[in-house]
Task: structure prediction
Amino acid sequence: MTLEEAIVVEHLPDAGGYWRIELRAPAIAPRVRPGQFVHVRLTAPADAILRRPFSVFRTEDDRLELLYKPVGRGTRAMTELRPGAVISLLGPLGRGFPTPAPDRFPVLVAGGYGMAALYLLGRESGRAGIVFVGGASAVDVLCVPEFEALGWEVRVATEDGSRGLRGQVTDAFDAWAASELSDRTPELFACGPNGMLRAVGERAIARGWTAWLSMDRAMGCGVGACLTCVQKVRDPSHPDGWTWARVCREGPVFECREIVWEDDV
Amino acid sequence: MSPSTEPSLEVRLGSLVFRNPVMVASGTFGYGPEYAELVDLSALGAIVVKGICREPTRGNPPPRTVETPSGLINAIGLPGPGVAGFIRDYLPFLRRVPTPVIVNVWGRTVEEYGEVVESLDREEGVHGYEINVSCPNIKEGSRAFGVHLDMFRRVVERVRAATRRPVIPKLAPNVSDIAAFARAAEECGADAISLINSIPAMAVDIETRRPILGNVTGGLTGPAIHPIAVKLVWEAARAVRIPTIAMGGIRDAADAIEFMIVGATAVAVGTANFVEPRTAVRVVEGIRDYLVRHGMTSVADLTGSLRLEGLPCGG
Result:
């Protein structure tokens, strides 16, 4: 991990209220592995003191690109950044996705901007598979052209039916698994809301597949010191069978069997 | 002196000598390895590791922190490896770092404080003890140690009897007379005091009308508490002869210098480590620049240099 003053190269609004920001970060960008994140220091609003974590969408030479939706005070202020602005980046952070197993069929499952966190994996997996992407509406479905350009098949589900199948992304996956999977064994890689991740994990456990889930937790330091972003994981060595893992350090990617789900997610 | 002379940054705390007065505060720097890739640990005055108690602990359920204006409320709940786990998993790393290590110690009973310090005192590589009597996230009695003078004295006396290494009680901010706790620490044989711990605080999600933190309440840290800490450090430091280590919302050298002017011998950077891991190193550089700019030969000249002439409380 490195601390770097990155320079904003381009920063534009995208569909669905999302924004894309491209940063020149020569020390960090070439070292980002699929599923890793960077921790961004915001300078505004002045009374927001913590960094904000973002999955890395794409890297290209000395640049990296983030895709984000302004949802809070910090990310709304971030939209004001103009090309040439300097922002402090800490990264690459976390344990990302493993390299897809060569004897499995790679399947990506994304909710919302989870697509962005899966793009590098799609690019560096060595072979194209299938991507399932879901959102509330058609505008929430991101990055489809990017995945198609990599040779991946993309299946879309929207809750309002405005694009693709009407329903959850797991409905689209289930339909495919029932009729088109045949004798292949999939390896699942997922990023999205916790409910979606849990549903993906349940399917994998029921069928004996491997599923890698990128967990999302409110984060503090990003390096494992503050112990904010903890996730319950199985730990046979503990009398109760579980322990806290730091999403920023032991994660954000966990195999679904590691996760202990609780009622709130 | 010639303005080009390098000022001395060395400070003493009991038998310990620190290369500079800037430490990293307990709970904000893990046990050292977490930041080793980003921060030159040998540039720090001391490393104060996260609180250690007798047994391994899990801490509180999430959410454990919430960002508030210029601050952070935390209710981490002191998860940790326990004293044996700390000695096994972290002390070998820390022994290789050429920087004094102060272990923050907490217990649920007076006896537990003593036992933890006795265990650590058998180990090389531990240079002093910060006695956590004031973490707002520990129930089971620990909080009471920090706000009741008689309990506070019993803890400090027990720890004092367990070690000859420096003992540094960390004072709670939420008391009506901080000077009384500072004096009690000195009377019980403490080598220094540190303050302030986080300030008890709470935040509510108004849409769900539920507390944001899993523990309901927590402790506020960060720039929001700095002016409160300055006032408490001023009151505590002038009540005692032993050194004061000041902490509370340090972002830069100016905040640290302010603490030293009101009486601190050393300072600790806390929440800012989460934001800018190299804050402590930058604070050291900033203090050096300040001393040069003001023609001061030693950082010790800053301590307690507050000027009160002509003010109601001066003279």
